[in-house]
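We emphasize that the prediction below concerns an isolated chain of 208 residues; any contacts that depend on oligomerization or on bound cofactors are therefore not represented. The input was used exactly as deposited, without trimming of termini.
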Amino acid sequence: MAHPSKRRRRKEARPAEIMAAALTLFSERGFAATRLDDVAETAGVSKATIYLYFDSKVELFKAMVREIASARIGAAEALVEGFEGPSPELIRGLIEVLSGIVAVPQIRAIMKVVLAEAGNFPDIAAFYRDEIALRGLKSVSRIIERGIDRGEFRPCDPVATAQSVIFPILMNALAGEIFGAMKEFDAAKFTSSHLDFVLRGLAADGGA
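Result of the prediction step, given as a token string:
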């Protein structure tokens, strides 16, 4: 008979095991094509066990996003909130953090699912937008506003410019997820090049 503490640890690990199984199936088969029965089989639990933790497949996806992505975005927000140095240094740090976040395989898998299923499941797209995408956009916008106010960045539209900062990072990550490992998609070289473009474009002296 299993020791009570082992059974307890096993029970505490079940939500993470269910979410890991779900993400694998969502990524491979698509959100629509994946049934909770499939998730249960892959996770080695009963379908009834899944309902102990998640009310539906959509709620399972939302919990997965919170577990995998939301905490990482929270760390990025904390960096912006507590930083007191120059704005160019801050935006450099945030871009490096965001590039690291989208390099996580589970994050890329979630992004691919959202992109593929947004039309048929607007609820999960809206949740990802509010919980992850807009929070990242807001953090970058705050840095740009800060830099403009301090005379470190040239005047510009903070939100539109923040999109110009973030979207290439997301697209590079999706390209890597879609096309796989290719020498043309070197993440480190991309981040370095993107940082150079961003800092030169924002520079108060025009990047001279």
